[in-house]
Amino acid sequence: MDDAAFNTESVAADQLKAFIERIERLEEEKAGIAGDIKDVYAEAKGNGFDTKVLRKIISLRKRDYAERQEEEAILELYMQALGMA
């Protein structure tokens, strides 16, 4: 193997290692944040809030208003078709 090939492999290996280490650090941060979120839900539940509903609201707030309206209209249509509304 010549020096150029070795250097290229060494640089690629160093880059790969750097990417892996960054991802590992971010995964650790994500786990910490997930734990914090879990604690907030537990606190909300302790104060009498329904965490299932809170999760639904968080999900809805992430989405565009028009997208939510369309989904709600379809849901209402389906519920009517099933005699649920």
Describe the structure.
- This protein has 85 residues and is an all-alpha fold.
- It has two domains: 1-47; 49-84.
- Helices cover 85% and strands 0% of the residues.
- This is UPF0335 protein FHR70_004526.
What's a quick, concise take on this entry?
Residues 12-83 form the GapR-like DNA-binding domain. The protein is mostly helical and 85 residues long.
Key terms:
mainly alpha, 3 helices
Task: Give the number of helices.
Answer: 3
Shape, per Cα inertia axes: elongated
Hey, roughly how much beta strand do the residues contain? Answer: under 5%
The helix fraction, in percent, is: over 70%
Alpha carbon gap, first and last residue: 74 Å
> What's the β-strand tally?
0
Query: pLDDT under 50 segments (min length 5)?
Result: none
Any idea how many domains?
2
Mean pLDDT: 93
Secondary-structure content class: mainly alpha
Tell me the major beta sheet. none
Q: Whole-number radius of gyration?
A: 24 Å
Series of H and E elements: HHH
Q: Quaternary status of these chains? A: single chain
